[in-house]
Write a structure and sequence with these properties.
Organism: Bradyrhizobium aeschynomenes
Pfam families: DUF2798
Number of strands: 0
Structural class: mainly alpha
Keywords: Membrane, Transmembrane, Transmembrane helix
Protein name: DUF2798 domain-containing protein
Distance between the termini: 45 Å
Length: 81
């Protein structure tokens, strides 16, 4: 393990989530370049650009999204028997 203090878990989450999302989206967007033979280089450069853009957005948006998710959901009540 890297030993990153837990207080930075928000940033670790944001890096992983934005990286994975951008990796998949860039791969899908790069599919047309498959026939031209430059799929891998197109995919990786697209992913890097998308990740550099999305990482700060996810870091800033995640707390608000978590708060909204709490507002839109409720605690589960124990099943009365």
């Amino acid at each position: 393990m890297l030993g990153i203090p837990r207080r930075y878990s928000h940033f670790v989450f944001a890096a992983i989530q934005s990286g994975l999302t951008c990796f998949v989206a860039a791969g899908i967007a790069s599919l047309p370049s498959f026939a031209m033979g430059d799929f891998l280089s197109n995919w990786l450069s697209s992913w890097l650009m998308a990740w550099a853009t999305m990482l700060p957005i996810v870091v800033m948006a995640a707390p608000g999204i978590r708060s909204l998710a709490v507002v839109l959901t409720r605690d589960e009540q124990p099943d009365p028997k």
